[in-house]
Structures are given as structure tokens and as C-alpha cells.
Amino acid sequence: MSKTYAVPPASPLNHGKTPAAWVMTVGVVAGAIVAAVGFTFSILALLIVGIVVIVLTVILSAVLRVMGFGQKARRAEAAGR
User: Which chain regions cross the lipid bilayer (predicted)?
Assistant: First the structure.
């Protein structure tokens, strides 16, 4: 007797697979690497550049989310049901 298994339904959340999330991830990682190199070799200008890249990335990601390129808030999903 063979059993048939159904695939579970897809999650309603996309777990950050959005352009805003990718920009945030790549930008913060790149900024952290630049800042770490600056910190390691005592290059203050490089450290500051890395920190600025991280701050600008956070701002850019927030702007992208407001523009609709991010994951919707749970409140918005609940209101739409």
C-alpha cells in the first residue's frame, strides 16, 4: 500500500527575498568588510568609509521598502484579508 504525501502550502512570508533585503545584506557585508580592513590596518579613512557605507545602505534599504520593493508589514497583510 503506497502513501501519497502532499506538499505543504507555501509560507505567506517571503523571508526577506526582496530587493530591499538584498541591498541591505550586500551593503552591510561590504561596509563591514571595508570597516574591518580599515580597523585592522589602522586606516581611519577606510574605517569611516565602511561605516558610512553601512549607514547609507540602511537608509537606502528603508527607502526601497517604502517604495514597495520590500516585504509588506504584517499589519498590512492582516488588513488585506
Answer: 20-37, 43-64
